Amino acid sequence: MQDVLHCHKVSKTYADGETTTPVLHHVSLSVKPGEQVAILGSSGSGKSTLLHILAGLDKPSEGDVFFQDKKITALNSAQLAALRNQEMGFIYQFHHLLGEFTALENVAMPLRIGGESAARASQKAQVLLEEVGLAHRMAHLPHALSGGERQRVAIARALVNDPAVVLADEPTGNLDDSTGEQVYQLIEKLSRDKQTAFVVVTHDTALASRMDRILRIKDGILSTQN
Ligand SMILES: Nc1ncnc2c1ncn2[C@@H]1O[C@H](COP(=O)(O)OP(=O)(O)OP(=O)(O)O)[C@@H](O)[C@H]1O
Fold this sequence. Notes:
Low-confidence stretches: none
InterPro entries: AAA+_ATPase (IPR003593), ABC_transporter-like_ATP-bd (IPR003439), ABC_transporter-like_CS (IPR017871), ABC_transpr_LolD-like (IPR015854), LolD_lipo_ATP-bd (IPR011924), MacB-like_ATP-bd (IPR017911), P-loop_NTPase (IPR027417)
Strand order of the largest sheet: 6-7-8-3-9-10
Helix content: 25-40%
Number of helices: 7
Distance between the termini: 24 Å
Shape: globular
Order of helices and strands: EEEHEEHEHHHEHEHEE
CATH class: Alpha Beta
Organism: Alteromonas australica
Strand content: 25-35%
Bound molecules: adenosine-5'-triphosphate
GO molecular function: ATP binding; ATP hydrolysis activity; transmembrane transporter activity
Radius of gyration: 17 Å
CATH architecture: 3-Layer(aba) Sandwich
EC number: 7.6.2.-
Oligomer: single chain
Subunit structure: The complex is composed of two ATP-binding proteins (LolD) and two transmembrane proteins (LolC and LolE).
Number of domains: 1
Number of strands: 10
CATH topology: Rossmann fold
């Protein structure tokens, strides 16, 4: 089975004038379709840097990243933007919903940006909001939703384009334990139903332990957790 996401010997060193900060060291990672992978590490270990490189938001200093058979590290910024819009989903610790748009409009946004008609985008967003249990909250603005509901809207938005992979940065980090558990269960259900791969970076061992595979990152070095 072809990997959905793959990186090979990725290193990253930030350079700022005289100062260089090595952050990632020869990180290699393969993610299969539908697989849930947790990347577990403490603050400053390089988790967000790795996720940004996998998303094509940042370039590695060395090494290559592939999405299916496309070499992400060789794409220009317009090609990367299209790839992110059409083939990847993103979930963040803070929901990043647009405050002046309803839940439905927020979920429809990636489709509208991708050129889908308003009617079709809205119809698809509605289906996703139903799947995350928010059929009764579609017309609400983000401020009128609970933290867990906002994160469920963000999950619906991440999945509305039927991405092959969702990259999530501390998706439960801002939620209490029981709401975090509900959000995890939703990720699990959607991942199984839709065969969407999830790469979740987190320092939450409870969340990581629920996933198919745990990798640990420490001082920019990725290793398998036993
Ligand atoms: N633009 C930058 N320039 C220089 N150093 C950076 C830059 N971005 C990140 N770093 C450094 O790289 C290291 C890893 O940062 P990163 O954000 O990837 O960690 P993290 O594991 O996601 O941490 P957290 O859990 O706190 O978000 C940190 O020591 C950070 O200070």
